[in-house]
Design brief:
The complex is a heterodimer of chains A (469) and B (102).
Chain A: H1 7-12, H2 14-22, H3 38-45, H4 49-57, E1 66-68, H5 70-79, E2 87-91, H6 102-115, E3 120-124, H7 129-140, E4 143-151, H8 159-170, E5 174-179, H9 184-195, E6 198-199, H10 205-209, H11 212-226, E7 232-236, H12 241-252, E8 259-265, H13 288-296, E9 316-320, H14 322-336, H15 346-355, E10 363-366, H16 378-387, E11 391-395, E12 405-409, E13 418-419, H17 422-436, H18 444-453, H19 458-468
Parallel strand pairs in A: 2-10, 3-4, 3-6, 4-5, 7-8, 7-10, 8-9, 11-12
Antiparallel strand pairs in A: 1-2, 9-13
Helix pairs in contact in A: 6-7, 7-8, 11-12, 14-15, 18-19
Chain B: E1 2-3, E2 8-16, H1 27-30, E3 34-42, E4 46-47, E5 51-55, E6 61-69, H2 83-96
Antiparallel strand pairs in B: 1-4, 2-3, 2-6, 3-5, 5-6
The chains are: A alpha/beta (469), B alpha+beta (102).
């Protein structure tokens, strides 16, 4: 009998296809209600820090330069109150083979695929992860397919994503491009079934643990440089893996006191699956359109249990606007001589503002940069926005309306992060846990799990559950 | 335009018609089909619009409508947005300029 290849037919085989394509039996870690054994999943299916350093090091991944941004620090101090203005550092992750920190995630995933005899790897991504998987597949001699959401219904593609497709192809991957819509997942499942390749998902324990080396390096390098751990690390937050992995790595290094801040580009009001709004945004990742849904429901990813659980590690969550990130991208080029891609500078824009709240002797790190090039650069991204009717002007960035305007700060002193109420996000996550698991009575194990998974405590979880009743 | 067997081409397929789209997609997206493109070496001589078979870079055979022969990259640095140049001037003036703006 031939298989049902319709949308419904393929989606109904989702779990079976995934199990084969990831090689993890997620049921092993499941409990009865909301809880699952996250740490056991990370321990039993991932790799140790030492193993990961070895795996990544053997393909030239990691140990990227940690650079002090002295001029940007001086600039921040001009606007800070007396005695304020922390030293700002940046981890130059663009120095990885594929041009972003995603190489760390891909290194583990592709190594794992090779070790377990898969002939190829597939990833669904419109981001830097595609090139990262393609690069690692090239090194390990595996075939590689990247599935991208790229065009609107007029066939107009985001320049940033088109560049990423080019890079994947340059590294030997087959790139499948689609129009806007979450049903990309259907095409993805069909390909997994057809090829039998490994699902190099961004959200497996291998992928997330791959970023732990980044957090570990931040602690080790700072200790060498200033004799202690960084005070604040800012992570650009989308799917949550960057923040989760970095925080875990810092903890493994013993950097318990380091504050972890998530930063996303504010794209409030734009629907990520909207055909008409697709090309109205100037950031295709690192934005709230992914950041908030993935924080409030991480298990929406392409594996049954996401290893990226940002609320578990996040101390503070801030947003910056598109215009502010573009401005800081230009500042990085013009004041520090580092021309890097805009999306990766989300954390830098946030760090520039947050540094002004901290004492001068403190240290804040923007933990990534990404490569830049045609399509993926301040000029083409702003040019594309202008072509799509977005107003671009200097002014107060707080007045920017995503999808309508990009407001470059009239003056760098106007760059200010806006805090997202983390308790609200945590509440929303708890609500989703109850609803999606059809829970009426919450067991003690679930309470404990929720407290850990939201970096809160039992009293907080109990209070929220009572409010939701 | 014609493609000769072995040419590098781009082919098109409709994955889902508007009626088949998932229930959770927004209204504007529901009005349009889900479409896909993939590139490879064409297996026969053909003309634009023909149903053809290609071999992709990973060796898969895929069928679809021929839409482009020798697809090329045309993304660029776009039309210059001159505002960008003002950012650098402003920053250097604030940081290194003679006048202290504090």
């Amino acid at each position: 009998m031939s298989k049902d290849m319709s949308y419904k037919g393929v989606m109904s085989r989702r779990n079976e296809i995934m199990k084969k394509a990831v090689g993890i039996d997620y049921d092993m870690f499941e409990g009865e209600g909301i809880a699952f054994d996250y740490e056991r999943m990370m321990r039993e299916t991932g790799y140790t820090l030492e193993e990961m350093m070895e795996i990544q090091g053997s393909t030239g991944v990691g140990n990227t330069p940690l650079l002090e941004l002295k001029n940007i620090t001086s600039l921040a101090r001009k606007f800070a109150k007396k005695g304020k203005g922390a030293r700002i550092f940046i981890k130059d992750e663009a120095a990885n083979p594929s041009g972003s920190f995603k190489a760390r995630r891909a290194a583990n995933a592709v190594y794992h695929a090779k070790k377990h005899g898969y002939k190829g790897v597939i990833a669904a991504t419109s981001g830097n992860y595609g090139a990262a998987v393609a690069s690692q597949a090239a090194i390990h001699g595996l075939k590689c397919i990247i599935v991208q959401e790229c065009y609107d219904s007029r066939g107009v593609g985001q320049p940033e994503i088109i560049e990423k497709a080019r890079k994947c192809e340059a590294l030997g991957a087959e790139v499948i491009q689609l129009t806007v819509g979450p049903e990309l997942f259907y095409t993805f499942l069909r390909l997994l079934e057809e090829t039998g390749y490994f699902n190099a998902s961004l959200y497996t324990p291998f992928g997330i643990a791959g970023v732990e080396t980044l957090g570990y390096e931040l602690s080790r390098e700072m200790r060498e440089l200033i004799g202690r751990d960084p005070d604040v690390v800012v992570c650009t937050n989308a799917g949550g893996g960057n923040l989760t992995g970095t925080a875990r790595g810092l903890m493994k290094a013993g950097a318990e006191a380091t504050q972890i801040v998530g930063a996303s580009v504010n794209l409030k009001g734009l629907h990520m699956a909207s055909d008409q709004q697709f090309n109205k945004k100037s950031f295709t990742t690192g934005h709230t359109g992914f950041g908030i849904p993935f924080a409030t429901w991480p298990d929406r990813s392409d594996v049954p249990r996401s290893a990226a659980r940002p609320l578990r590690y996040m101390d503070r969550y801030v947003t910056v606007n598109q215009g502010e990130v573009f401005y800081m991208t230009e500042a990085l080029a013009q004041l520090e001589g580092l021309e890097r891609g805009p999306a990766g500078n989300t954390s830098l824009a946030a760090a520039f503002s947050l540094a002004q709240e901290l004492d001068k002797d403190k240290v804040i790190i923007a933990q990534e940069t990404e490569y830049t090039g045609a399509g993926k650069h301040i000029q083409p991204q702003l040019s594309f926005a202008r072509k799509n009717g977005i107003e671009i002007k200097f002014g107060n960035p707080r007045e920017e309306i995503p999808g309508e305007s990009i407001i470059l700060p009239q003056h760098p002193s106007l760059i200010k992060t806006v805090d997202i109420d983390l308790n609200k996000i945590k509440k929303s996550y708890i609500k989703n846990c109850l609803e999606n698991n059809h829970i009426r009575e919450v067991r003690d194990e679930d309470m404990e799990f929720l407290a850990t998974d939201t970096k809160s405590d039992l009293a907080f979880v109990k209070k929220i559950i009572n409010q939701l009743k | 335009m014609k493609a000769k067997r072995g040419d590098w081409v781009n082919i098109y397929n409709m994955v889902l018609t508007p009626e088949e789209r998932a229930p959770q997609v927004p209204e504007d997206t529901k009005k349009v089909p889900l479409e896909t493109w993939v590139k490879g070496f064409i297996k026969q001589d053909a003309e634009i619009g023909d149903e053809v078979a290609i071999e992709t870079i990973t060796g898969r055979e895929v069928r679809g409508k021929l839409v482009e022969v020798n697809p090329s990259y045309s993304h660029s640095f776009g039309n210059t947005v001159p505002e960008v140049f003002k950012i650098g001037l402003q920053l250097r003036e604030i940081l290194f300029g003679g006048e202290d703006h504090e």
